[in-house]
Request: fold
Amino acid sequence: MAHRTSIKTLLAATALVTSASVAVAQDKPASLDVGVFTFMSGPAAAYGMPGRQGAEVVIDMINAAGGIDGVPISATFVDEGQGAEGVISEYRRLAEEPETDFMIAALSSGNCLALAPIADQMEMPTVGWNCDSHQLFADAEHPYFFRPNGNTIAEFMAYVIYFLDNNPDVERVAIINPDYSFGHDAAEIVKASLAAFKPEVEIVAELFPKLGSSTYQTEVSRLSAARPDVIFSNLWGGDLENFVRQAAPRGLFRQSQAVFALGESSMNNVDMPEGVIVGVLGDGWWRSPDAAELGAPEFAEAYQTKFEKAPVFPAMKMANAFMVMKAGYEKAIEANGGAWPTDEQLTAAMEGMTIDTLTGSMTFRADNDGIVDQVVGMVGSVEGIEGPVLTNMVRYDGDAVLPPEGEDPMAWIASLTPDFIAAMPKPGSYE
Amino acid sequence: MNRTLTLSGVALIILALAPQIFPFLQFTLTIAIAKGFAALGVALLLRAGLISLGHAMYYAIGAYAAAFMAQKLGITDFAVIMIAATVISAFFGLVFGLFLVRYRAIFFAMLNLAVSMVIYSLASKLYGITGGTDGLRVAVPTIFGMELSKDAFDGVLYYVSIVLVVALGYLIHRYLKSPLGNALSAVHSNEVRLEYLGVSAWSSLLTAYTISAALAGVGGAIAALSIGHVLPEYAFWTESGHLVLTAVLGGIAGIAGPFLGSVFLELIHTIAVGFAAEAWNMIVGVALLVVIFFLPRGLFGLFERLSGQKATDGEPKL
Reply:
């Protein structure tokens, strides 16, 4: 007897999913529907939720100011915690819907790598809001995928420049990064930068605890024994907080200068010692002088009112992604004589665009990777502000630390010399 | 019998037409079919009373094989990729099966889990080869020398998958009716008796294990080509658990069961994520409980009621 697929279930289920395939009209829509992809479940929600909250606040702000050319933004949030297949399938579903105008996706680099070709295929203008893997634009062009928020090469090289300037006598460096591509990529970049800038530096430990570890006692012991001058880490979220809680009582931060690349997002949750080098992977520190002039404090105040805490950099990255989208539309509308643009006109306008986000200036290169400044500083306190802030800051020009287009990033780093650092602004030059 | 055939025919026609009405369903259903193949592989072993908690590894091996051929070896032909991915998964199934099928019950489940997590770790740690957790990109393959756009290729892939469901489904159906296939139920009911009949339980299981790995490989290759990206998470143990769940939910009494379960789960997932981005896991969970409570024979039980037949002969109770 042959048993095959049943209709009933299939019919009932298909009927539940409704959508229509109608050609996209170029009339001004009633609302600008944006698909926003972020982690809302699992450990990565530690970054995904501030992102989502940042989106809510910035949408309210833009809509209160009249939306984009009078069109209010409305967002559909999609959970990246469901895995790549689910994310892709949701992206496709939203992109097929005629109402969807724009996508802001995604947080995870793996998801961005998977979504970029689909954005091109479906001709859906998309902004990657947090993913920073330098692999993204390395071997393929993505005319519909834009990334305004930074590239791992620039991000991690900035820290090496900072700590070499700050601790010129450094001889021994240890690395402790999460055990996935992000951590391994960062370790490669740090090692390559050190080899170029200060070849005599020795890497005394390279640890990759697994993502979501609850105990770091082994790692702390290894690090204590290795006696590094500098500990570099791109642990983040709950991992970073756990590590700091377990390492601080054992005196690790008195012995070595710690560098937490994603430290800003955790410094309000855990007692991070003053003097630890932290940053925001880009320029998304809302209290920076540039940000103060660009409207970040207003955003932060609205965020504070709504969620009762200050925005961390993932929230700023998300807000900036919306600012990029807004600027893109406005530029395209202007170029189109005031009429609502098609998707092609929109992407054409975004190409090579320079805009002021909430925290600084951003320019798209020809490959759609954004040139963003890198703000690095130290945990410190300032009179009049409750809680830790970034002090002794420096702002590296985004163009200077990003490998030239089309060049192999690692080969580019290898071609640099110590003179490169000498030409860079010094810690404390940006207050 | 006739009603069963008609029902299956109608179901396949609906499957074939669904993307014409709801274009986005094409991707969801392609993935559902891909996972359906892997779940069918799990279902084969369930017939012998063996629960594999590691079958996602063969799904991943199929997917990575497809990605490797396209990216590292420059083989772009669709047919070659599909066949080679299947053969490679079958090969791994044979090698691991050589020692895994010696074990039963919890030991079989756990050892499969262990091997699959080794594969998962290798996929996520061999950065130079597998791209680590960022995975590998899969280019759009050519079809007998023709270069297609991704859109056109997805259409072809979908209909090829449906044809494969029919073709492989029929072959597996024949296999289950053959003495070799019947031996699986015999392993479950009384292995000693089977040995006394002169049939080697080990070789019957090894055959089944290899076939089930090949089926998972077919699914993995379809998924890789459809998604265009492979990630180590394909081999993660939760994926394996998902496959067992799919098989049990769909029902293991017939070939259609795992596919039914898979389509059902994927659709529920899509709907839940679409309507309640923050509570989707709960909705999926509740849907599963409903099926388990009210359809103890899985979704296949519904199918049997519709077709008016209920074949419990020669089939183990779970």
Notes: Chain A has a mean pLDDT of 85. The two ends of chain A are 78 Å apart (CA to CA).
